[in-house]
Specification:
Blueprint: H1 2-21, E1 37-46, E2 53-57, E3 60-67, E4 73-80, E5 82-85, E6 93-100, E7 103-119, E8 123-135, E9 140-145, E10 149-150, E11 158-162
Length: about 160
């Protein structure tokens, strides 16, 4: 009889311990999965005293941006100097319509897609490598690709040089 009483508490402790230690850690995805192209606005000017070219970060008073081929308004802002543009992960070209101070311009970004594995919990994402950026030239005069790799890091990938 004493052996039975002694076995029940030990068995109970073992079952409770097994239950507690059998729980898994919460392995939800905590990594960013947002992949967007960072674009900054610049004025290309010349320093009058040195005669050298100077890049000046510019703030746009009124900006409206939408994707061409998709019915989505991406930006409707005032006073901004940078934007984030999502690239189509199932194509190798994305087009955007940009309206600044009643001047409409078109930006075309051509790129290569690459699938990048993040982790078991997060799965994979599609990153991009920018090849070419074209503009219709109405407001954006020229474009410089400064970081062609578009991934989850929030960096400036292209510089948009505009007229005053």
């Amino acid at each position: 009889m004493t052996k039975v009483k002694f076995k029940i508490p030990i068995l109970t402790i073992l079952l409770i311990s097994a239950f507690i230690f059998s729980c898994e850690k919460d392995e939800t995805c905590r990594k960013s999965r947002i992949v967007e192209t960072g674009a900054g606005f610049y004025l290309d000017s010349v320093n009058t005293t040195t005669g050298k070219r100077v890049l000046v970060k510019s703030t746009i008073d009124s900006l409206w941006v939408s994707g061409i081929g998709v019915d989505s308004l991406l930006y409707k802002k005032t006073k901004t100097n940078a934007i984030k543009l999502p690239l189509n992960q199932f194509a190798e070209e994305s087009k955007f319509r940009m309206k600044t101070n009643k001047v409409v311009d078109t930006i075309t970004i051509r790129y290569k897609n690459k699938i990048e594995y993040l982790s078991l919990e997060c799965g994979s994402i599609r990153t991009h490598t920018i090849d070419t950026v074209l503009t219709s030239g109405h407001y954006i005069r020229s474009v410089a690709i400064i970081n062609p790799t578009v991934n989850t890091l929030s960096v400036e990938n292209i510089q948009l040089f505009h007229t005053k």
